[in-house]
Structure formats: C-alpha cells, structure tokens
Structure to design on (168 residues):
C-alpha cells in the first residue's frame, strides 16, 4: 500500500487555482533576469525571498490577533510552461501561498507567451511573467515547497528559510 501512495504522490501536482497571463503585473519595462536575493526553483523565482532567511523573528511572527504575517516575494515565471507551486502538507499549518485574488496551499501560474504585448510599456512581456504574490507565514522556520512544471513527472523540491538561518 505504501508504494502505491508514493507513486500516486509523484503522478502530478494537486488541483490548484490558476493565475494566468491576464493577471500578470508589469512595471515600466520587461522583467529582468534573477538578482542575488531571489530564490530560483526550476523556471520560477521569488524576488527577494533569500532575505527571509535572515529576517528577524518579529518580522515573521504574527502579532496578537492576525493568523499570518505577509512576506512579499513576487513570483516570476519563465515563458513556456505552467508552474504549480505547492506547500508540503506537513508545512501547511505554518505556511500558505498568497497571490492576487487568493491564498492557499497550492497555485498554478501560467506565464504569458514571450511575444505578448505589454500593457504598461512599449513592446512585449518578454521571457518572464511576474505576478503579485508571496507567502503567509506563521512564525520562523524551515518550510518545504514543491514546484511542478507542466510536462515534468517529478517536482523540484526546495526548503525555504523564514528567519531560521540556513535550512537543509
């Protein structure tokens, strides 16, 4: 029975809300390539997420009343294939994904084709599509993310630090 469960878990990502090209965000120019503070996981990166590792405990601990602290980290997806980001089941009580219009344990981002006309500057969207979003965090710790890429049979897995220094 256990091998069947393992095989099923690798069959593909869970069903997730879809955030498409029409819900992208733009600045005054095409989205640039990664910067040192970004965390890359396959064809998606989260801007500035590397700073979460060295944030203070207070920055990631909810104040009395609210359930979550917000950590903004714009998801940027390479053109080509949809990406589903999933919080590992064991970490869902402590971490959720947040995007324009929703939040939860999983979300699928569908990037624009690179030739899509930009709405805020002359030209095209280019090789990367940005979306509004980040993470809802319930305190410091090491949290596991899965990134499923359309057409790939196994996810990329990454442990992210939220005010916990180095995670393994």
């Amino acid at each position: 029975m256990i091998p069947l469960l393992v095989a099923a878990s690798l069959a593909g990502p869970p069903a997730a809300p879809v955030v498409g090209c029409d819900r992208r965000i733009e600045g005054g120019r095409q989205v640039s390539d990664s910067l040192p503070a970004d965390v890359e996981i396959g064809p998606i990166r989260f801007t500035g997420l590397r700073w979460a590792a060295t944030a203070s405990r207070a920055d990631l601990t909810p104040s009395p009343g609210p359930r979550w602290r917000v950590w903004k980290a714009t998801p940027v997806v390479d053109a080509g294939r949809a990406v589903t980001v999933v919080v590992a089941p064991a970490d869902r009580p402590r971490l959720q994904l947040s995007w324009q219009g929703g939040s939860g344990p999983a979300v699928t981002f569908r990037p624009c084709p690179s030739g899509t006309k930009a709405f805020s500057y002359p030209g095209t969207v280019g090789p990367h599509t940005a979306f509004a979003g980040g993470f809802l965090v319930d305190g410091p710790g090491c949290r596991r993310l899965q990134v499923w890429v359309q057409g790939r049979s196994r996810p990329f897995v990454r442990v992210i630090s939220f005010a916990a220094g180095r995670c393994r």
